[in-house]
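Long-time lurker. I teach an intro course on protein structure, and each term I like to show students one example going from raw sequence to a predicted 3D structure in C-alpha cell notation. This year I'd like something fresh instead of my usual example. Would anyone be willing to generate the C-alpha cells for the chain below so I can use it in lecture? Attribution to the forum is fine with me.
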Amino acid sequence: MTHHTHTSNIVTPFISRHAAPSRTAIVVPCFNEADRLDRDAFVTFLKRSPNTEFVFVNDGSRDDTLSCLCALQSAMADRVRVLDMPQNVGKAEAVRQGLLVAAQSGATHVGYWDADLATPLDAIDDFSAILRRFSDTHVVFGARRMMLGHRIERTIGRRIVSRICAGLARQAVRLPIGDTQCGAKLIRNTPILRAAIAEPFTAGWLFDVELFARISKHMTDRQFAFYEHPLAEWSEVAGSKVTATDIAKSGVRMLHLIFEMRLGIAPRRAHQGKTSVAAQIVPSLPLIDVA
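-- Reply from a regular --
Happy to contribute to a lecture. Here you go:
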C-alpha cells in the first residue's frame, strides 16, 4: 500500500465545503487495538449519524491494528480517515496529530474518543447537542459520576487516580472540574483550539489537563466555556496501556506546569525527539492522492 507523508499544509479536507453547517470529526488513537476494536460499532454509528467522521490514528502498533483500520476505512471510505504513525509516540501526540487533521477538515466540532468505547459512541450526539445549544461552551467532556440510574462501572483504583487528576485540573484550569481523564471530549473548532494544539503536549498521560489549561487561558468566561456532562453509561475495559509510572511522571510534570502558569513563566518544552516522526495519511481504496 502506498503511503503519502502528511504535513500540516497539504492535508486535503475530507468534508465538503458545501456540507451541512454542523459536522463532527472524532479522533480515535489506536495502539495495539486489533483485538479490542469494535468495527461493527463504528460502522453502525456512522450509518445512522451522517454528520460524523472519524480520524483513526495508528500509533505505531505492533499487531494488526493498521490492517483493521484500513478495512474499516474501505467499508466507510467517505467517513473514515486513517493516520499512520511509523513509530509509537504515545497517546498525547497521537491525539494531537489527529486533532490537527480534524481541525483542518472543516468540521464544526472536533474531539477524541477512546478506541475501547468505554464511553459509547451514542454520547457523541449528546455532546454535539450541548455545543449547539450553548454558543459560549467550547469544550464538552464526559464525567463518570456514580449517580442514581447511571451505568458507571469503575474500580476503586480508577476512582482514586481520577480524584488526584481532578485536583490537578482544578489548579491548572481554576474551575471545579470533577473528571478530566474520561476519554471522551468534544471541542468547538476555533482558532483557540488550533492554537492549543499547535505545540506538542508535555504532561504525558495528563495531556487532557494541559489541553484544558491552554484553552482556558484564552477564555474571558471560563465558567461556561467548559461543560462537564455526566455520562449515562461507562464501562471499564481491560487492557489499559497506562502504567503507574506513567501516572507518576505525568503528575510531576503537571505540577511543574501549574507552577509555571501561576507565575506566568513560559512552559518548558519536553524533548521532542520521540514526537518528530512524520505521520502518514493512509489513502482510501481505491487510491486517492491526498497531496
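Some talking points for your students: The two ends are 16 Å apart (CA to CA). Residues 244-263 form the longest helix (20 residues).
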